[in-house]
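ok so i was messing around last nite and threw this chain in just to see what happens. nothing serious, just curious
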Amino acid sequence: MDRKEKELARRRRKKRVSDKVRGTPERPRLCVFKSARHIYAQLIDDSRGHTLASASTLDKAYRTMGPKGPGKMESARWVGATIAAKALAQAITRVVFDRNGFLYHGRIQALADAAREKGLDF
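result:
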């Protein structure tokens, strides 16, 4: 499977799931995106179209972890823990998980598990 076919398959999965996954003020959507180098997470209230909190490997706090930083899996765990801390600071405990068409394994699963460990419910 080449790169274009993989991206097309991810977009099909995303479209199939996006109709069912909606964020509300009480239960925002935890949207995850991963690239080859970075991973991003956002809490989104779809009713107003606002991003409530975000965390990624591009954050300044992550950059202070050293010149090379941790590996990809540890980075995903850090982003999951960070987004959970930001959510709990805003009194958000329940979210809807939007994996954005990515398969639930590897870095996506590590981010979700770290967020659950820190207190998010989804």
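not much to say yet. Helices lie at 3-18, 60-63, 72-89, 107-117.
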